[in-house]
Amino acid sequence: MTTGDHGAAAPPGLDGTGLRIGVVRARWNSLIVTRLAAGVGRGLAGLGVRAEDVVDVVVPGSFELPMGARILAASGKVDAVICLGSVIRGETSHYELVASQAAAGIQEVQLSTGVPVAFGILATEDEAQALARSEEAEGHNVGYDAAVVAVEMARLAQQHSVPS
Ligand code: DLZ
User: Fold this and answer.
1) Which of 30, 40, 50, 121 sits in a 20 to 30 Å window from 59, CA-based?
2) What is the overall mean pLDDT for the chain?
3) Tens of pLDDT, residues 7-27
């Protein structure tokens, strides 16, 4: 696993075998979100999460990611959720509003449901920054980082029997 200095490094021995993970993807800026989703796929597979244990849903934009996460978290069918989106300042007049509401909503969902929700949303000045944080193969990919976070937090919740 290589995520560089800024990425989440998986703790030694972290194992996602048997975990069920929900992935909520925003349709806005789909080129970037598709790259993030590829990073999630690499991260989950590398930690032993089976493809058939991944529930994938799509919402219109990043503003709807918390609601998508809430739906999956409340379903009882997943151990953790990963939210993927891209908000680009240069193309979004209400950039701060969309990005901050998505972040606040995701935090609220994980705290209120007890189901961990990993934050895989890029809020960048421009598309070049978003591309640099959703790299393929060995590069930095925030989706990959979010996959590691989801597995780690799902295991933590299991170990301490957090009721969902
Ligand atoms: C409306 C909007 C804009 C302008 N920009 C973005 C963006 O950069 N990234 C993103 O994920 N979503 C954007 N949206 C859509 C909002 O997230 C939301 O879907 C709409 O405001 C409808 O609630």
Assistant:
1) 50
2) 92
3) 667 889 999 999 999 999 999
Does the beta carbon of 28 lie inside 6 Å of ligand 1?
yes
Say what the pTM is. Answer: 0.94
Q: Is the CB of 29 under 6 A from ligand 1?
A: yes
Looking at the annotation, which residues are catalytic?
94
Q: How much is the pLDDT for 85? A: 98
Q: How far apart are CA 67 and CA 1, in angstroms?
A: 31
Count the domains in the chain.
1
Tell whether the model's pLDDT for residue 109 goes beyond 50: yes
Domain CATH for 84: 3.40.50.960
In a domain, 1, yes or no: no
**CA 68 – ligand 1 centroid, Å:** 14
Residues sharing a CB contact under 8 Å with residue 3, sequence separation 6 or more, in sequence order: 9, 140, 141, 144, 145, 148
Task: Compute, in angstroms, the gap from residue 60 CA to the centroid of ligand 1.
Answer: 8
Residue 5, pLDDT > 50, answer: no
Query: Domain containing 164: what range?
Result: 65-164
**Residue ranges with strand state E in 74-128:** 80-88, 117-124
Q: Report which protein residue has its CA nearest ligand 1's atom 14.
A: 61
CA distances from 47 to 11, 14, 125, 145, 151 (A): 11, 7, 32, 12, 8
